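Researcher: Batch entry, complex prediction.
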Amino acid sequence: MNQNQGGNDARHDDDSALSDFLASLVDYTPTIPDELVEHYLAKSGFQCPDVRLIRLVAVATQKFVAEVASDALQQCKARQSAVVKDKRDKQQKDKRLILTMEDLSKALRECGVNVKHQEYFADSPSSGMDPASRDE
Amino acid sequence: MSDGGGESGREFDRTTKRKSSDRDFPQAIAKIAVAQICESAGFQGFQQSALETLSEVVVRYIRELGKTAHTYANSACRTECNIFDIIQGLEDLASLQGFSGASDSDHCLAGSGTVREIVQYVSEAEEIPLAHSVPHFPVSRDRKQTPSFLQIGEEPPGDHIPAWLPAFPDPQTYVHSPVLNERGADPCAGNIEQARQHKKAEWSLLNLQQQLACNGLEGPSMIDPGDAAKARRAAETNPFLSAPLHFGEKGVSPVFLPAKLSNEAVVENQAGENHAVANHVSVLETFAPAIELMKSRSCESEEGRKRVLSNQRPAVQFKIEIGKKSTGTALDLSFQNKDVEKITSWFGKDNEKDDKKRRAEKILKESMKNPQELAQL
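Model: Structure tokens for the complex:
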């Protein structure tokens, strides 16, 4: 009985936490706009008039993107530090952190998305070079 | 199999074209949003391809989430989704990366690890609204519908037409009424007429050049239209000047091929030796002045030649058949060229406009440049 009550209390807590969270979402403006999320959800058959659920989906997507971005950033920083280690004599240039396809594909592979891109297109003199040195 | 493949290929092209036009705007918005999120994560620049790929992945994530939530709602006999459908969808998508409590089989959805992670994220991350304001899309254009008979207040013209159908368009749109020529003399009409005349003249000259190439030398058929005999001869050679066919007749166009000509000549030869001989003689006669000129070409000046030509301008047309091949081959090409020039100068003497003469000369010169091509005509 006690366990059940404890379980019930936990469930109530969960429910209340969820409802509180949903209430707070109304104030929070996610980066991904509501119209965009509504458009794509409508395309896949999702029907819901509640704006809080739309916000929930938007926030979940934002979290996903933030995770991928942070992974890619870690990859980028790791590569930069590796380069700097080799050439300590040179002045440490403050290089801009650029999101490249290489880092992105490594980060997305953890999420189960396989992004393969061409190594190089032989149409410019800088093809095949280290992409970090190519500023775009 | 190949037909099916071809058709599907075409369909694929059509659908991809439609897709690209449909998803341009939301894709662009997604790119902006993704760029802002990456910027907050610490990036200072993006590769175009990387940004596009990530925004494409984000779009697919949203669609996958919606599809999964919708599937769960349908499994529970509902059409509208609720929070639990979304949480289940989130769990499905996050199952690859894993979340706390993923291994529990009968946990309450409200306390799912994914929700807790999201709550944590919201509490930590700063709020970054989108840089642009997004209007409500897709914008649906209201179609202006044709009002019905009832709405207009008209009586439908006929008992078989119910009044709730859309009204007929104005009779002016479909009734053909005669148009009065108010403008009278069209300023462009004169130019058009002139152009037509020029074209006719050019065409006849081209025709002439063609016949020259096949037959050798053709008499100036256009020069004296007053002469009836000449007109008849011209009608024979120029199909556009021939008399119109009566009902029941069939017009056979004369094809000027060398093979046919040789056949013609053979037939003529067979018909009468005299006739052929007469032709042959006439050929020599007509070529006499030209041959004389050729002999005296080196010592005479060009103007002298022209003077000689004006004296010997023939009053009769001459028609030269390539009956005797020897005659044809005896003439060398340079001679032919000179002859053509003389002919054009003859044309020039007879009330022809200067530019026409120049054009004719140009055409003939161009044709004489490649004698091999002419033989094929």
